[in-house]
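Retro notes, structure queue

What went well: the backlog is down to a handful. What didn't: a couple of records were mislabeled last round, so from now on we paste the full input next to the output in the thread. Example, using MaoC family dehydratase from Streptodolium elevatio:
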Amino acid sequence: MAISAEDAEVGTELPPRTVTLTRTDLVRYAGASEDFNPVHWNPRVAREAGMSDVIAHGMLTMALAARTVTDWVRDPGAIVEYRTRFAKPVVVPDDERGTDVEIRGRVGALLDGGRVRVDLVVTSGGAKVLSEARAVVRLAP
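Corresponding output:
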């Protein structure tokens, strides 16, 4: 059952999520998205571009945050608006461990029409990787 407008108030926290990304995940995402930019798979090119190593796709990072919201609301079609800015790239080392992306969210405002604004904090390695990350969500009546 989807989250209803009566179940959400300002300050309601979404269940936190930690996703581990590995180089294998980047290859899979590149194939699915057809984004084969070499900064996502070639360390030499990433370093030449000023990165310390290969980085995750920005849209992948955004999708992880959006998934946290849709899992909370239990309706993937409930997001009516979503925006963010990329603050820092997610560096993915060439090892078996990968890197963690942590996502936290909370209801930041109640809006008209049974909608809420969810404010997200997305970090990796202790640094904020998305800023101004917000989703407007239509809740069940």
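Agreed that this is the format going forward. Reviewer comment attached to the example: The chain has one domain: 5-21+57-138.
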